[in-house]
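Q: For a teaching session next week I want to show students how multiple molecules come together into a single three-dimensional assembly. I've collected the sequence lines for a complex. Could you give me the predicted structure tokens for the whole thing so I can convert them for display?
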Amino acid sequence: MFSLVKKSLNSAQSFMSSREKILEAVLKNQPQTTVLPDISMFKGDKNDIIQRYVDVFKTIGGSAFIVDNLDSVKDLINEHFDVTKRIVTTLPELSDSAELISATVDPHTYEDVELAVIRAPFSVAENGAVWLTDEYMGQRIIPYICQHLAIIITAESIVPTLHEAYEKIGLGSYGFGGFIGGPSKTADIEQALVLGAHGPLSMTVFILK
Amino acid sequence: MKQSETKDHAGLAEDFIKDEERVNWHDGALWYIREKRDIASKQIPEWEQLREAASKIKSNVISNLHEYLLQFEANLTKNGIIVHWAQNAQEHNEIVYSILKAKEINQMVKSKSMLTEECHLNEYLGERGIDVINSDLGEYIQQIDNEPPSHIVLPCIHKRKEEIGELFHEHLGTEKGLSDPTLLTRVARKHLRNVFLTRRAALTGVNFAVAETGEYVVCTNEGNADMGAHLSEVQIASMGLEKIIPQKKHLGIFLRLLARSATGQPITIYSSHYKKPRKGQEMHLILVDAGRTRQLGRTDFRDSLKCIKCGGCMNTCPVYRKSGGLSYHNTISGPIGAILAPNLDMKKHADLPYASTLCGSCSNVCPVKINIHEQLYKWRQVIVKEGCAANTKALGMKAMAWTLSSPGTFTNAGKAGRWFLHNIPFVVNNKLNPWYKQRDMPEGPKESFAEWYAKNEPKR
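A: Of course. Below is the structure for the complete assembly, covering every listed component.
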């Protein structure tokens, strides 16, 4: 009798989809509900935030410049990068010296970009990372495929920690967003640090005062 | 894959430690990462509170997983991501295959995903004519050497640069003898860039999946996940059920802990939040059980599902550092692997909870405060009770229980041991005694504490 019941249960189960079976097992096995902790006390310190950002960003292998305006950015680009190669940007102000990124062309066509210059809405002092969304990137692939990445932020947009960063981001209406904290790197071969794994070989941040 | 099915952890570790120079290097390299983790964590005054908060959030996830999974699924669907559910490795692999087959794709690029390693996805697809390339440099190196990763964050940490140079010479045509890490990385960069540009499908793992928004976060240092994903027309993400977190703001807690615990970096270079497909792109996400719901039902072991895969417990573990990840014969090695693996196959992994000194260092560095060393101890009890322990271990335990249960036998055994060590040491200092391997036996004391105390007890 018992084996019959078991059999019919088994065959009933076989009609269930994997989704239903997994969800049923989760419901059966999960313990009694515990509450979420309050995390509102996690906050950073705003003191000396620009200098702290610059210091951290340099330790992770980036270069940072505090500048007064976009003309200084143009000068620094001319000084530090090979401007004979392909330079792309999302800033109309730079369109005299760089090609404007198209949101609609095939992303593969950006394969030969030497330098991409884009704005970011803010950066994070504790870890040096900038926050970008597809809207700021022009195309999702841009900050990853370029050989060198340059980001323009305003000094007042820097936040102390990731807690303030996520407060700023909120739920977000982007399709893709990401923190980028320095040039791509690897230490997979004997723990020797190498800058420029698959993404950019260098990352520069221009901080507009 | 080169993987020994017959030897246990002790046997495989024995092979690894034959090369003393390599063991010492391996030990030192991992300890250096542990030290970097310490420096990074000490710069955050609220570090311990962050660990506590992370642990509590993960407790909440485990206790509400059913609801969060439904919420996550609904939000993914709203975002235009196609959701799949897989009960086991086989189903997972079939789903990936069917997605690729529908698009007539026979080449895929993959970023780091321990789950797909666990599922042996590459082999499964390979047998069906689909070529997969691992794009994380360490995983790529392991793949061309036909070996599984030995560490979840540093897949080829057990290899020396000369060995990698030799592999590159054989597979990528580099000059013989080239072993400079920068030059080798440049060669791989060039080769893999061409892979990214020519693959129509990209698969990534998942670090965190936000139930509240239906987005998932992938962390890399190399940028390989993004290079693959943003150039693909089909993007697939594979995740274990336990990767869910409730709310977006919780990412602040986990991303602050993850890289600092893993490598001592303040954040991984890329923390990418995937939410909606690009125009013209198709996005799939596969939710995989593969033993996770069973582990959820094990009261003593369910907290292992809190793991965020930082590898901190491996870097600090004296046994891992001196035996190498491959000796654990499981995709996830080290202390965390040793508490996850017995759930998958208790008989096959019965040796792993014994690959520990129970020193507790793993639990002390764990960013989500998993009681790893306590679970290792508890698994030993379960394994013996279920009759999965190796015979020598079971016999030894019985002999010890007999000796320790009677003061008379304990005293006599101690006396006998001391007598042997003093008078005929070769009886214990020989190859038949496993404890003697790579160690010298200590000089035995002249008397036991009980004997000393009897002589020196103050006369009242």
